[in-house]
Design brief:
The chain is of the alpha/beta class. The chain is 44% helix and 21% strand. The chain has a seven-stranded mixed β-sheet with strand order 3-2-1-4-5-7-6, with helices on both faces. It is globular and about 45 Å long. The two termini are 25 Å apart.
Length: 241
């Protein structure tokens, strides 16, 4: 898989660049996401919550939690403890404000940390989620192996990630939108002009569908399944340990 990075003229590694990028765009990330996805990402997250809720988890880890949208939605599962983990302190600060505003600080803890080297013991979480975060891992298989480590046997792992439509005319329409329209929106709304170009490029080279399923199986996950959303512009992946 191509190591696409946010800042092509930087000597920093991908992990450091991604951290810097999300710190830069944290202030308007939520609003911009709504515009870019036409608000459909809200319904995708609801489906993730429903899948997790069906397993009655007591402990949930939301990796690459960002500003905490999914972690907050996961409170609907009635889990005892939800941890939102992210590498960007800027995104987490906004997430903490949202958690406090919702009165969920006794349930949701926002933690600064690296998804590829997590500060949690083995076999700890009943359910783990990642929404639009796995393609930002510096080492994909290392990150997935770390998720496998902290997930309980029998636990549920759900990924929500961008993917590429494969059918005409959705494929052509998606390519035009991501290459021509989305970068313009990003430049208008964001002070970081490289950020949304990176998000588009990283989505275009990231393995999706059966390719990602096979990587999950290689790590050791079982019951692997993919559920394409909205003509294939995003996919929900479910698996267990």
């Amino acid at each position: 898989m191509s190591k696409v990075k946010p800042y092509k003229d930087s000597d920093l590694g991908k992990k450091e660049q991604v951290t810097k990028m999300f710190d830069n765009i944290s202030g308007n990330y939520d609003d911009l996401n709504r515009v870019i996805s036409f608000g459909i990402d809200v319904s995708w997250r609801k489906k993730v919550v429903a899948l997790v809720k069906a397993t009655n988890p007591k402990t949930i880890l939301d990796i690459a939690t960002g500003t905490g949208d999914l972690a907050i939605n996961l409170a609907e599962t009635n889990a005892d403890r939800i941890i939102g983990l992210d590498i960007s302190s800027g995104m987490l600060e906004i997430g903490k404000q949202k958690v406090n505003k919702k009165g969920l600080e006794s349930t949701i803890e926002m933690v600064l940390g690296d998804s590829e080297n997590m500060p949690f013991e083995d076999n700890y979480f009943d359910a783990i989620t990642v929404a639009f975060g796995v393609r930002n891992f510096e080492a994909l298989e290392k990150g997935l192996a770390e998720i496998y480590r902290v997930l309980k046997p029998g636990g549920t792992f759900v990924i929500l990630e961008t993917s590429m439509p494969t059918k005409t005319p959705y494929k052509q329409g998606y390519n035009f939108y991501t290459k021509n329209i989305l970068p313009i929106i990003g430049k208008v709304f964001s002070k970081d002009k490289s950020a949304y170009k990176y998000l588009c490029e990283s989505a275009s080279v990231f393995p999706f569908g059966e390719a990602l399923n096979n990587i999950l199986r290689k790590i050791g996950f079982i019951n692997v399944n993919d559920l394409p959303q909205t003509f294939g512009v995003a996919t929900i992946y479910t698996s267990s340990k």
